[in-house]
Description:
The protein has 311 residues and is α/β, with parallel strands linked by helices. The chain has helices spanning 12-23, 39-42, 60-73, 157-167, 185-192, 244-247, 287-306, and strands at 2-3, 5-8, 28-31, 48-49, 58-59, 77-79, 84-89, 94-98, 102-105, 108-110, 116-119, 135-136, 150-153, 172-175, 197-199, 202-208, 215-220, 223-228, 231-234, 238-241, 258-259, 271-273, 278-279.
Amino acid sequence: MVYDVVIIGAGPAGLTAGIYARSKMMNTLILEAGHVGGQLVALYPEKGIHNYPGFESVQARKLSDKLYAQAESMECDIRENQRVVDIKGGDQRLVVSTQDQEYETTSVIVAIGMGDFYPRKMGAPGENELDGKGISYILPQKEDLVGKRIVMFGGGNSAIEMALIADSVTDTALVHRRPEFRADEINVRNLQDSNVRTVMNATVKSFNGKDRLESITLIQDGEEIEMPADLAVINIGITADLEILKKWGLDLTDQGLVKVGIDMTTNRHGVFACGDVVDYPGKYKQIITGCGEAATACIMAYKFVKKPYWA
Length: 311
C-alpha cells in the first residue's frame, strides 16, 4: 500500500496532523517510536493544562487521550513502537523505514517533538543512587503523594503546576536556583496564593538517604539548609537527541531543529514538519502552536499529494 501521508510522531502535533489528513480523506499512517502521547504522557501525565482552548483545565494525559481517540475515530492507522530510522526516495515516492518494516508514501510530516528525550539531571551527589527511591523526574499520581513531604525543583510552568497539584494533597516545597520564576504570570500568582513553600536562589549540595531519600541539603546565600523529604521531583528541562534528523537529510537550524518555511515545508520535496521539532523566527513552543503548525503542514501535504485545482 502507498500512503498519501506518513506522520512521524504521535504527540499532539502528530495526532492533529492525522485528524486533518483524514478530514481530507488521505490514507494516513502515524508512526510512534514509543507510545502515543509524546512528552505529555512521558514527562507530564498528571500536569494540569490551563491554556488549551476549549478546556478551563485538562490533565495532560486526558488531553492526549482525547486527541488519540479522535484520530482513531477518523481511522488513522496508528502504530506504536515503530522507530523511524530513515526516509528515502525522491520527488514521486518516499520510503519510510522503521526498525522492522518499510512504508511507501507520497508525503511525510515530521512531528517527533524533541525526539529521544531524557529528563535533565541536577548532577548532585546521591541523585543517581536514589533515582527511583525517592527521586523522580515525573510527578506520581496524586493519590500516591498523600502524606509525603514533597520537594519540587524547577522554575518553569511545569514545575509550578506540578507543585500546585502536590500542594492540594500534601506538604510541598518548590526550590528554584534563581531569584525569579520564568513561568507564566498566572502560574506565579497561583503559586503565591497557595501553601507551597518557595526556596529561591538555592542549589542542591546533596540528596541524602540510604535505601530511600530522607533529606536534601541545599545551599542558599552561602548557608546550608537541610530539608527533610520523602520525594524529590526534578523538573529542570530535558536533554534531547535529534541526531536522526541529519540522517533524514533535513536542513537544521543552529539549535539542531528542523528549518521550515512559514508553510512548514522543509528542504526535502514532499517532507513537511511541525511541533517542537521545528524552528523559525518567533517560534513559541506550546501545545496549541504545534497543533496549528500541524494543520498547516497537513494542508501543504494535501496540496502536494492531491494537487487540487484551487491550490
